[in-house]
Amino acid sequence: MSGSPMRPELLRIATISRVEEESRGVKTLYFSDRLCSEARPGQFLMIWAPGVDEVPMSLSTISRERVSVTVKLVGEGTRAIHKMRVGDRMGVRGPFGNGFTISGSRPLLVGGGTGVAALKPLLEAMLADGVEPTFILGARSLDDLLFRSHLEKLLGRRLFFTTDDGSLGFKGFASDLAIRLMGERDFDSVYVCGPEPMICKVFEEAERRGLPIQASLERYIKCAVGLCGSCALGPFRVCRDGPVFNSQQLRLVRDELGRTRMDPSGLMISIEP
Ligand SMILES: Cc1cc2nc3c(=O)[nH]c(=O)nc-3n(C[C@H](O)[C@H](O)[C@H](O)COP(=O)(O)OP(=O)(O)OC[C@H]3O[C@@H](n4cnc5c(N)ncnc54)[C@H](O)[C@@H]3O)c2cc1C
Ligand code: FES
Fold first, then answer.
1. Residues 49-63: tens digit of each pLDDT
2. More confident residue, 150 or 3
3. What's the gap in Å between 82 CA and the centre of ligand 2?
4. How far is CA 100 from CA 58, 81, 191, 243, in A?
């Protein structure tokens, strides 16, 4: 070791050691990185595809041997990441943000779409701590459910599926099933990551029932270190104060949640469905 501490905000080069096709248009890229191995579940990285873009991605695996990001193909940046193969090199900054805090012994985890990526290492940390989580895994359709067999092995009967088209499990949104389960079972905390309208509904129900919640939110992230302001949400900067927010913080941004966000040019735009 050199003796000088590694700084997460500085760019490092990581070599991809494995690529997994997870579901339609979603790939997981594995690599080794000491700082990422020490990350908290819910923290994110900036992944730089040289010459194309740098985009925020949650850590979907955190272990001493290897870490990963799970990337949905959306546009130019994620297309460049999807083209990467074993042995290719990419730029990595981070881990950034606060991550989740494990509290309670009977948590409900609600993940929709690629939001599940941020909840996977949280779930693994909870199980290692002897906590017994219930997990709702939601997607548009059966083929879009992320980490299905891995989660089945970890959770057995405590895993619930929801699909918008009813191709597996509950037909409807993950938030609809979350609201129903909160009425039927005795949870003591709620964790959620996914589309913001889904987060809003889960938050409102948790509030109604007096359950503490932690939600991972997405905003436009450029610098990732709290300087540029592009990720502003009420009094917060999502890159530095989030991306995970607790009940108290979510109450402060209730008016913006699921309604508005800043676009890359700094303009406030509607995100209402
Ligand atoms: C904290 C955080 C964690 C995330 N984790 C994941 C993850 O684990 N897996 C995953 O597939 N996606 C994740 N995302 C979303 C991901 O960053 C965007 O899908 C990606 O940046 C799209 O880039 P693009 O160039 O392919 O698409 P573009 O065509 O450039 O953009 C498509 C849309 O992606 C979003 N986006 C683009 N650039 C950014 C940016 N710099 N910051 C925030 N949003 C952006 C915007 O909503 C934009 O409208 C996360 C976002 C945040 C903020
Ligand atoms: S991304 Fe620049 S302040 Fe958060």
1. 999 999 999 999 999
2. 150
3. 25
4. 12, 26, 8, 9
Question: Can you tell me the mean pLDDT for 59-81?
Answer: 97
Q: Of ligand 2's atoms, which has the minimum distance to the CA of residue 240?
A: 4
Q: How far does the centroid of ligand 2 lie from the alpha carbon of residue 235, in Å?
A: 13
- Phi and psi of 106, rounded to 5°? -130, 65
Amino acid type, 105: S
Q: Is 223 in the pocket of ligand 2 (CB under 6 A)?
A: yes
The answer to whether the CB of 270 falls within 8 A of the CB of 242 is no
Q: Model confidence at 5, in pLDDT bands (50, 70, 90)? A: low
- What is the C-alpha R_g of the chain? 18
In tens, the pLDDT along 145-175 reads: 999 999 999 999 999 999 999 999 999 999 9
Q: Do 201 and 175 touch, CB atoms closer than 8 A?
A: yes
The C-alpha angle with vertex 118 and arms to 114 and 123, in degrees rounded to 5, equals: 120
Spatial contact of 230 and 221, defined as CB atoms under 8 Å apart: yes
Ligand 2 pocket mutation, candidates 227, 236, 262, criterion most atoms within 8 A of CB: 227
**pTM exceeds 0.85:** yes
Ramachandran quadrant class, 180 (left: phi over 0; alpha: psi -120 to 50; beta: rest): alpha
Contact predicate 38/79, CB 8 Å: no
> What does the pLDDT read at residue 2?
47
Q: Reading across the β-sheet that carries 53-62, which strands appear in turn? A: 12-15, 89-96, 44-49, 53-62, 67-72, 26-31, 18-23
Tokens of 52: 């194309």
